[in-house]
Design brief:
eight-stranded mixed sheet, 182 residues, 6 helices, globular, 8 strands, Aminopeptidase, alpha+beta
Length: 182
């Protein structure tokens, strides 16, 4: 399966947001998309994912903190349209996104690929994350949102070393959730 990853730009942001909202009803990535478009960093991008001429999902990578501090890139707005699920797209997109980050780790101080999720709302994705990520841990930072105790962080090492836990470092999920409501 060869998929095409089309960068989200000002030209396709409205369409990309429509696709994302089909995958995540009630949430909006528009502000995240616009922020990364304007920031224009090589290691912070979002993509529409196509199989031939058909859009099947979205994915992205970002960092809220300087790479020199966290050595981490995060998976953002990753999902597959409902009609395209159970066809192998989720695995392929996740593996391809990990490969994007591995390539970037040759140029930037990136050691880890991470993602956070709500174990209740996204339970169908957990087996996929368990398969491709190295470790998982509950996120319970007392100064941040933790989805009523259901927030989990997965980490994958991009080096020969073992993945290091996030250890409840502040993620600022409250701000992210507020932006999603816009």
């Amino acid at each position: 399966m060869k998929l095409a990853y089309i960068k989200i730009t000002k030209d396709n942001i409205d369409f990309a947001t429509k696709i994302q909202e089909e995958i995540f009803p009630g949430e909006s990535a528009y502000e995240h998309y616009l922020y990364t478009i304007n920031k224009n960093e090589e290691y912070e991008k979002y993509y529409l994912v196509y199989d031939q001429e058909k859009v099947v999902g979205v994915t992205g990578i970002y960092s809220n903190e300087p790479l020199e501090e966290t050595h981490s890139l995060w998976l953002g707005w990753y999902g597959v349209l409902l009609a395209e699920r159970n066809k192998g797209y989720g695995s392929r997109i996740l593996k391809d996104t990990i490969e994007m980050v591995k390539k970037l780790s040759q140029k930037y101080p990136i050691k880890y690929f991470r993602l956070y999720t709500d174990i209740k709302e996204n339970k169908e994705a957990l087996p996929l994350y368990d398969k491709y990520m190295d470790i998982k841990e509950m996120y319970n930072n007392p100064n941040d949102v933790n989805y009523d105790g259901n927030c989990i962080i997965y980490s994958k090492s991009l080096t020969q070393g073992k993945a290091q836990k996030w250890n409840n470092k502040f993620l600022n999920l409250k701000q992210i959730i507020e932006e999603q409501g816009k």
